[in-house]
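Archive record
______________

***
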Amino acid sequence: MRNGPIDFRPVAATDIRVVADTHFRDRDLPGEAERRDRFLRFLDSLAPGTFLVLLGDIFDFYFEYRSVVSRRYLDIYEALDRCRGRRVDVHFLGGNHDHWVGSFFTHDLGITVHHEEIRIAAQGRKLVLAHGDLVMPRDYGYKMLKSVIRNRAVIGASRWIHPDLLDAIARGVAHGSRQYFSVPQEKRARAVEGHAWQSFFARGNDAFVMGHVHYPMHVTRDGHEFMIVGDWLEHFTYGRLSNGRLRLETTRS
C-alpha cells in the first residue's frame, strides 16, 4: 500500500456494499448450493444504483484464459450480468485465490476490475478498500509468493497449462490455504487491528475496509473506522455504507 496523500474516486451512490471471501467451489460439494443460492439472492436484491465491491476470494480459484472461463461459476456470472442490467455498479478486486480475472469480467460482464486497493470518496467519507492479503503483519512468506504468482511472465506461462491441470494444481494450493485458515481467525483479526492504527490511516482516509481474515470486525477509534467484512463460509456478513454510516450486516438465509 502507498503512503502519503492519495486521490479518492468520487462515488455518488447512496448504498455501497462490500463482500469478500465467499470462496465458491463446486456446486455439488456439501453446503455449497445453499451458500451459493444465498449469494445469488443477495445479488438479485441489490437496487439500481448500488455500488457493489467484490473484495477478493469470491472464487476459491479463478484463472481466466483468453478464450476459456470456468463453467463452475455460470450461475454467478449470470447473476452479475443481471446486476449490470439493473445498473448496479460492480467492482472487483482480486484476492489471493482469484486475482487472475481478465476481459471476460471487464468486457462481457461489464465489471470494473481493480489491481490495487480501491479508494473512494462517498457520503462525506473517504474509504480505502483492500483484500487484505498484503497487509498482514509479518506475513513475509506470502508476500514473496505474491511476487511470483502475480508476475506477468508467470501468468503468461500458466496459460500454456491445460485448464484442468492448472485447476488441479490450484486445488492443492487452496487445500493448504484452508489449513492455514484453520487457526483461530479472531486472533489473526486482533493482530491486524493492532497493526491498523499504525499504517492504515496515513493517506487521508477515515475508514479502512478489508477481507482475507474471514472474521467480521468493526472498530471505531480516534475518528477512524477499521472493518473486516467477514466471510460467507460461516458468518455471511458484508460491509455497508449508507447515510454516511459504515456497518456490518448479515445476509438473510
The first helix runs from residue 32 to 45.
